[in-house]
């Protein structure tokens, strides 16, 4: 079992405070494990959740908007779902999440936005926000 340094510990505590105890415990377990892939969550704890997320340059909701936009553009639906939940915890509304999708459409294209929209809807459902919204797949459009 790996021990966490001060920055990693700070990052784990930070994301646990946003995502809740269950996520925090799973993230801590991933960070302290000594198995294939374990260095990656330790880097996330240190760089993303300590260095970047705790930097004072932007407010948390602005950071969420930036990260969500980047993940949409990079077509990363799994990580996007986590960050939509973080964004909701940081005060983003369903209307603002939809606004990001609309704003990004001319820059990243309709296929990218279709995939991202599904991930955003699924994450909103999991967070208890707008559970009655259907994905394009559920509407029979994809």
Automatic annotation (TrEMBL):
Protein name: Carboxymuconolactone decarboxylase
MF terms (GO), sorted A to Z: peroxiredoxin activity
Domain named Carboxymuconolactone decarboxylase-like: residues: 44-119
Organism: Sphingobium chlorophenolicum
Positions of transmembrane segments: none
InterPro entries from the UniProt entry: 4CMD/NDH-1_regulator (IPR052512), AhpD-like (IPR029032), CMD-like (IPR003779)
UniProt-listed Gene3D superfamilies: AhpD-like (1.20.1290.10)
């Amino acid at each position: 079992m790996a021990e966490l340094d001060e920055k990693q510990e700070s990052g784990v505590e930070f994301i646990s405070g946003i995502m809740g105890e269950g996520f925090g415990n799973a993230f801590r377990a991933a960070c302290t494990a000594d198995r294939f892939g374990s260095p990656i969550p330790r880097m996330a704890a240190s760089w993303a959740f300590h260095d970047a997320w705790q930097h004072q340059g932007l407010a948390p909701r602005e950071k969420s908007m930036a990260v969500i936009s980047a993940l949409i553009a990079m077509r990363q639906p799994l990580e996007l779902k986590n960050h939509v939940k973080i964004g909701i915890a940081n005060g983003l509304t369903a209307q603002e999440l939809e606004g990001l999708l609309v704003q990004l459409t001319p820059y990243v294209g309709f296929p990218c936005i279709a995939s991202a929209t599904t991930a955003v809807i699924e994450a909103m459902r999991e967070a208890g926000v707008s559970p009655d919204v259907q994905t394009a797949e559920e509407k029979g459009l994809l």
